[in-house]
Amino acid sequence: MSGPRQPRHFGLIPAAGIGARLGAGIPKQYMPLAGKPMLAHVLDTFAATAVIAHTFVVVSADDGYIGDLVAAAPHWQGRITILFHGGADRHASVLNGLNAIRTQVSDDDWMLVHDAARPGLTSGLIEHLIAALRDDAVGGLLALPVVDTLKRSDQDGRVAQTVERTALWAAQTPQMFRYGLLLQALTQATALTDEAGAIEMLGLQPCLVEGSPRNFKVTLPHDVALAEMFLRS
Ligand code: CTP
Ligand code: MG
């Protein structure tokens, strides 16, 4: 007896940025970290996670690095597809990617959108997110409760206000939503936002699932040493 079709889980990795703030001379997703390029860490993790049916990577149309990366990773065969559909910003890259895979996914399949710049993600974190959202009507994201005391500054760099940190979280990725809802949300979103922000604009409330410090976004030069420490541990 076969029940209703179970929704599948797909990875979608926006990797079409240039990494201006890191200033590595090459797009940061291709920067070597603990022995392999940042994007290879992410794709190895997605490819090795059994619950992920397939993973799509969005790179820019003129990307000159991805070919060598794929050639060096025969174990991604059949697990990873490269989409040369990068846009002007992250939002556009994700939306272009979603549109490009329209015929390959169903509206109720889950999309896990994950930054190429977060190489510290593990299969365990992916499984934790999926388990937490399995029966969720909306979807959600990995995030970390804020532990520092927060200050809002004035124009002179002096404290204007202490911000109550209770109930504040820092958003991470993956952000996990059903394909149909996510496509609608990002198509309609009027401001630059993460996937969760676009869902919120529809009046829905994404679920916060506790992530991990090792899943931080490599953004500035001083982040490199910390990323290597997590990746080696
Ligand atoms: N990204 C993308 N398309 C863009 C811009 C960003 O797919 N046009 C991706 C990046 O490759 C990265 C993720 O979005 O995986 C998060 O963006 P960010 O950390 O800001 O990366 P960059 O935009 O490359 O860095 P910067 O803003 O410093 O230039
Ligand atoms: Mg950016």
UniProtKB/TrEMBL annotation:
The record marks 21, 28 as: Transition state stabilizer. Its EC number is 2.7.7.60. GO terms for biological process: isopentenyl diphosphate biosynthetic process, methylerythritol 4-phosphate pathway. Pathway: Isoprenoid biosynthesis; isopentenyl diphosphate biosynthesis via DXP pathway; isopentenyl diphosphate from 1-deoxy-D-xylulose 5-phosphate: step 2/6. It comes from the Bacteria. GO terms for molecular function: 2-C-methyl-D-erythritol 4-phosphate cytidylyltransferase activity. Transmembrane segments: none annotated. It catalyses: 2-C-methyl-D-erythritol 4-phosphate + CTP + H(+) = 4-CDP-2-C-methyl-D-erythritol + diphosphate. SUPFAM superfamilies: Nucleotide-diphospho-sugar transferases (SSF53448). The record marks 165, 217 as: Positions MEP for the nucleophilic attack. Keywords: Isoprene biosynthesis, Nucleotidyltransferase, Transferase. HAMAP family: IspD. Catalyzes the formation of 4-diphosphocytidyl-2-C-methyl-D-erythritol from CTP and 2-C-methyl-D-erythritol 4-phosphate (MEP). Belongs to the IspD/TarI cytidylyltransferase family. IspD subfamily. This is 2-C-methyl-D-erythritol 4-phosphate cytidylyltransferase. It comes from Collimonas arenae. The gene is ispD.
